[in-house]
């Protein structure tokens, strides 16, 4: 018998977000998401993945119920929300007035740490991500990939229980992809709930505990990589004929043969 989860959980029920009277997320409900999980949010372009994260971070108007440990997240003040959620956008703006260390320190303001302790903690975050050598570099002097890792640094610097990461690996080479995903995996293992938008299904299969598949603003599938990534799902959601192969050590590989309905080669 499965016992009910007794600790905090993220509950999302009937979440709706519209742009110009066009629903992007329509009455979206998800199964409870738990601390210690790395949840990959996948699906085609323009299906509401980034919008979901922005709604949870109060960056776009939303209706519905979003609760964490009994709190209504949609009703929290900005300061209270910052203590609960760390949000990583797809890229930080090129704000020439700030360097990487200053951006990271700004994200830590909700912790009310003494200045010296906050700076040491911020430098430790940059070291963890391998960008401590960029600490004094202005954002407008960074490459796209470097800005992306700096965005992750400011998200995790808050040490919030929930981390929302919007495409944390999209502009990174293979080595930096591994470093970022390994860091994210460890954050989940340390008890954070991490929700990451990922376009690379191989990364989602390798690192995530659960995969949520969004299609046109609705939840199409939810499960482990083994149960969520199937040829039927890929055909229905992505419009492709594909094979899903389970390799050694539990790795999952998706091989696309062509558009849905095309013969395999």
TrEMBL record:
Question: Which segments constitute the ABC transporter domain?
Answer: 10-241
Highest taxon, organism lineage: Bacteria
Q: Which PROSITE patterns does the annotation name?
A: ABC_TRANSPORTER_1, ABC_TRANSPORTER_2
Specify whether Nucleotide-binding is a keyword of the entry.
yes
Q: Which UniProt keywords apply?
A: ATP-binding, Cell membrane, Membrane, Nucleotide-binding
- Read off the Pfam families from this record: ABC_tran
Question: GO MF annotations for this entry?
Answer: ATP binding; ATP hydrolysis activity
| Protein name per Swiss-Prot or TrEMBL | Putative iron ABC transporter ATP-binding protein
Question: What is the organism field in this record?
Answer: Thauera linaloolentis (strain DSM 12138 / JCM 21573 / CCUG 41526 / CIP 105981 / IAM 15112 / NBRC 102519 / 47Lol)
């Amino acid at each position: 018998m499965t016992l009910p989860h007794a600790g905090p959980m993220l509950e999302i029920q009937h979440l709706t977000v519209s742009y110009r009277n066009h629903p992007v997320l329509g009455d979206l409900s998800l199964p409870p998401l738990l601390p210690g999980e790395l949840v990959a949010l996948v699906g085609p372009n323009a299906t509401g993945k980034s919008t979901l994260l922005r709604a949870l971070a109060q960056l776009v108007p939303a209706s519905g119920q979003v609760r964490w440990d009994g709190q209504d997240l949609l009703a929290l003040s900005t300061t209270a929300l910052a203590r609960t959620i760390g949000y990583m956008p797809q890229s930080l703006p090129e704000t020439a007035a700030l360097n990487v260390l200053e951006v990271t320190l700004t994200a830590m303001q909700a912790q009310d740490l003494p200045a010296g302790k906050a700076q040491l903690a911020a430098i430790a975050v940059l070291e963890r991500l391998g960008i401590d050598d960029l600490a004094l570099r202005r954002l407008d002097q960074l490459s796209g990939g470097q800005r992306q890792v700096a965005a992750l640094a400011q998200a995790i610097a808050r040490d919030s229980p929930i981390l929302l990461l919007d495409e944390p690996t999209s502009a990174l080479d293979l080595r930096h992809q591994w470093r970022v995903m390994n860091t994210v995996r460890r954050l989940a293992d340390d008890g954070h709930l991490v929700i990451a938008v990922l376009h690379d299904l191989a990364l989602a299969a390798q690192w995530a505990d659960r995969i949520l598949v969004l299609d046109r603003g609705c939840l199409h599938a939810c499960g482990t990589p083994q149960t969520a990534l199937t040829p039927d799902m890929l055909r229905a959601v992505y419009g492709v004929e594909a094979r899903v192969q389970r390799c050694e050590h539990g790795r999952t590989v998706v091989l696309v043969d062509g558009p849905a309905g095309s013969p395999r080669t």
